[in-house]
Amino acid sequence: MLDLPAPDTLYAALVSRDPSYEGRALVGVTTTGIFCRLTCPARKPRPENCRWFADAAAAQAAGFRPCRRCHPVAEAGASGLVADLTARLQADPARRWSEADQVELGLDPSTVRRAFQRHFGQSFLQMARTTRLRNAVNSLKKGEKMIDAQLEAGFESASGFRAAFSRLFGHAPHQLRDGADLRADWIDTPLGGMIAITDEGTLHLLEFTDRKALPEGLRKLSAMVGGRIGLGRNAVTDLVEQELRAYFKGTGPLFSVPVTLHGTDFQRQVWQQLRRIPAGQTLSYKQLAQRIGKPNAVRAVARSNATNRIALVVPCHRVIGADGSMTGYAGGLWRKQRLIEAERAYAAQTGAGL
């Protein structure tokens, strides 16, 4: 689902010179034989004269030459450094990266930071830190001692490890107890890691790990269940991971996993309505308020949308501004845009919203 968006979406981005497409798409102009970045200042071609490519290599393989005004091959170099550093991170996930390490590789840290922000919505150093925490979660799940998990994850001090872990989970590692009713685990997706909290029957929370409100959401959930949250997974976690994989592959836009919605009656009403919005379609906050029979409660609907703790399964990303703008997504507007584009492209291919 995260391949190139539909041509209409790409053409609109080309006309508006949308910078969020830097590193994600290029346009080849059939009348000139030149390919450009979507932010190129040159006069825009007609839509029927456009071909779309994911990278410079694909455009050149199709016989197009790079534009001398916007230098799309230079942007491809930025994509190359993203691929190189991502591969280095996968090869040595416990490494404590710094800007000095990037300089030793002949890279400019500011260029690296911008490139990773465009591709992933976070810096390379943030991604490296999150990767180390994921490894710590895996170690603790295996029953390893906290000091071993700390060192394996590349944290020199116990206090630093506890602080980083608490920022993510809302609790220090030792407070995620054995024999708990709820289980917390990490799930990797193409748009970043997610924390899933489940019991033996339902999903209670699914959030991207870099969401600022995640620790607070976890603390509230922990308080609701008397602190009975531990590390690990069960059959529901496996189902969530399986359905997320199908969703991102574009083979299964619907989620069947049962959910427990922790909120007021009004909030649950909003969240249940969100689940009725088909993939490939969007609503405004006003339209959502009208659908629950409370047309004057637009602000309350927006607040409920923002407090949703089950991302994607309860698709709050499908609510946009009345003018069509990408507004208010705690998981990051860059994610919201990519999710909506991917779902629209999928719906267009299948002929209907699902």
TrEMBL record:
SUPFAM superfamilies: Ada DNA repair protein, N-terminal domain (N-Ada 10), Homeodomain-like, Methylated DNA-protein cysteine methyltransferase domain, Methylated DNA-protein cysteine methyltransferase, C-terminal domain. This is methylated-DNA--[protein]-cysteine S-methyltransferase. Gene3D superfamilies: DNA Methylphosphotriester Repair Domain (3.40.10.10), Homeodomain-like (1.10.10.60), Methylated DNA-protein cysteine methyltransferase domain (3.30.160.70), Winged helix-like DNA-binding domain superfamily/Winged helix DNA-binding domain (1.10.10.10). GO terms for biological process: DNA repair; methylation. CDD domains: ATase (cd06445). Pfam families: Ada_Zn_binding, DNA_binding_1, HTH_18. Binds 1 zinc ion per subunit. Belongs to the MGMT family. It comes from the Bacteria. Residues 104-179 form the HTH araC/xylS-type domain. Its cofactor is Zn(2+). Its EC number is 2.1.1.63. One of its GO terms (molecular function) is zinc ion binding. Keywords: Activator, DNA damage, DNA repair, Metal-binding, Methyltransferase, Transcription, Transcription regulation, Transferase, Zinc. It catalyses: a 6-O-methyl-2'-deoxyguanosine in DNA + L-cysteinyl-[protein] = S-methyl-L-cysteinyl-[protein] + a 2'-deoxyguanosine in DNA; a 4-O-methyl-thymidine in DNA + L-cysteinyl-[protein] = a thymidine in DNA + S-methyl-L-cysteinyl-[protein]. It comes from Paracoccus seriniphilus. The active site is at C36 (nucleophile), C316 (nucleophile). Zn(2+) binds at C36, C40, C67, C70. The keyword Cell membrane does not apply. The keyword Transmembrane helix does not apply. The lineage of its organism: Bacteria, Pseudomonadati, Pseudomonadota, Alphaproteobacteria, Rhodobacterales. NCBIfam families: ogt.
